[in-house]
Amino acid sequence: MDKMMNSPWVLRIIALFLAFLLFFSVRTELSPINKTTSNEQTDVIRDVPVDIYYDNENFIVTGLPETVDVKIEGPMALVLKTKASKDFSVFVDLSHLLMGEHDVNLQYENISEKIKVTLDPKTVRVNIEEKVTQEFRVDPEMNSRLIEEGYILKDMVADPLTVYVTGAKSAIESISYVKATVTGEKGLKQSFSQQAAVKVLDRDLNKLDVIIEPETVKVQVDIGEYSKELPVVLKETAKAANDITINALTVTPKTIKVYGKKSIVDNLTEVPVTVDLSKITESKTYEFDVKLPDGVTKVSDKKIKVEADITKVDQRGQQEQQQEQQEQQTTPTTSEEATQPPTPTEENDVTDENTTTDDKNPSTEEAEDVDS
Fold first, then answer.
1. In whole angstroms, what is the distance from residue 23 CA to residue 207 CA?
2. Cis upstream peptide for 49 (omega within 30°)
3. pLDDT in tens, 17-57
4. What span, in angstroms and rounded, lies between the C-alpha atoms of 123 and 101?
5. CB burial class (10 A; 0-12, 13-18, 19+) of residue 137?
6. 78 burial class (0-12, 13-18, 19+ CB within 10 angstroms)?
7. What are the distances in angstroms from CA 156 to CA 191, 217, 219, 237, 330?
8. Do the Cβ atoms of 197 and 215 come closer than 8 Å?
9. Contact (CB, 8 A) for 282 and 265
10. Mean pLDDT of residues grouped by 10 in the chain (372 residues)?
11. CA distances from 358 to 351, 352, 353, 365 (A)
12. Model confidence pLDDT, tens digit, residues 292-330
């Protein structure tokens, strides 16, 4: 063994083996795989805002995402620093483009060149349009199911009545509705006011990407009981006194509002008011109570006025008129007797008188002849 170790060739072989072992150990340490594993890192920064450069006084750009995701790869220290500070930006420059559609690449700045950056999305299609501002009337709206039964929504008014909407020309031209929605709890039965956000919608009720000024309006909501105006109909009871003749009864007012549930009020056609004729003794204005019909909660007038026009008849004069009527009934009998034809005896007397007169006439004629 000692002879072998003292041999120069054995020592040479051992030295060569150690040299090869040292060589491969150093190469393994410098390998890219090991370097990546120990010194490099990959990370994703999400929802990074996108800055846009263009003439925002005269144009509107649509189609550009508000945020993008940024993937970064590189040395661990730089990746961690970039993610923590977020002092870089993502932008797109459209200042040199004309109106219309364009495919543009997103860019970034303030990121170390030693870091590999990937944007998602990297390319987008944008539309550059003319910027338009137009005034629109606000229509308040509210779910009618929130209102208590027996009450109705009388009116809703927005303050201010109009808003200014700014956006791309195509968006402004597609506006069909400008709404301010009022919310609340179920069972509403009193008027109230509320600040409501303004929404701009197209005809398919899709929300449009526009600028609204102001973004909210104050809505005054007027809620009241359901009512219906019905004619007043007099229902006469009892009888007027014997010496009174009622010529006319005039009612005021002629119509009354009744309040209550819609299903009940809509079935009513009139408001009956009972008038006791026995209480009408002279020509003047009387008051009568209005009784609530079944299901009605209240009426606009609890009393009505009835103007009576009557004529009083004198009892003594009535008796005299009755006597005159009785006499008139007996007088025709006497007249009939006066117009009856004469009896036969009377007729003979008349005939004799006529005969005598005729007899006297010839004698007179003879006397006239003798004188001549």
1. 69
2. no
3. 777 777 776 665 555 544 444 588 999 999 999 999 999 88
4. 13
5. exposed
6. middle
7. 10, 12, 7, 46, 81
8. yes
9. no
10. 62 76 66 56 93 91 92 92 91 92 94 92 93 96 90 93 95 95 90 95 93 96 91 90 87 92 88 90 90 87 91 66 66 46 44 41 39 34
11. 11, 10, 9, 12
12. 888 888 899 999 999 999 888 765 555 566 666 667 666
From the list 119, 123, 121, 118, the residue with the least C-alpha distance to 105 is 123
Q: Of 119, 63, 55, give the one whose Cα is nearest residue 93.
A: 55
Length of the chain: 372
Check: CB of residue 288 under 8 Å from CB of residue 303. yes
Q: Give the tokens for residue 345.
A: 């005896």
Provide the H-helix boundaries in 240-343.
Answer: 262-265, 315-338
CB burial string 141-159: b at 16+ within 10 A, e below: ebeeebbeebbebeebebe
Q: Average pLDDT of the chain?
A: 82
Beta bridge partners of 231: 255
The DSSP letter of residue 206 is P
pTM for the full predicted model: 0.56
Residue with tokens 């970064």: 72
Structure-token pair, residue 184? 């609340």
d(CA 159, CA 216) in angstroms, rounded, equals 9
Which two tokens mark 50? 């996108």
Name the token pair of 4. 């072998």
Single-letter residue type at 366:
E
Residues 256/298, Cβ–Cβ less than 8 Å:
no
Angstrom distance (rounded) from CA 271 to CA 255: 8
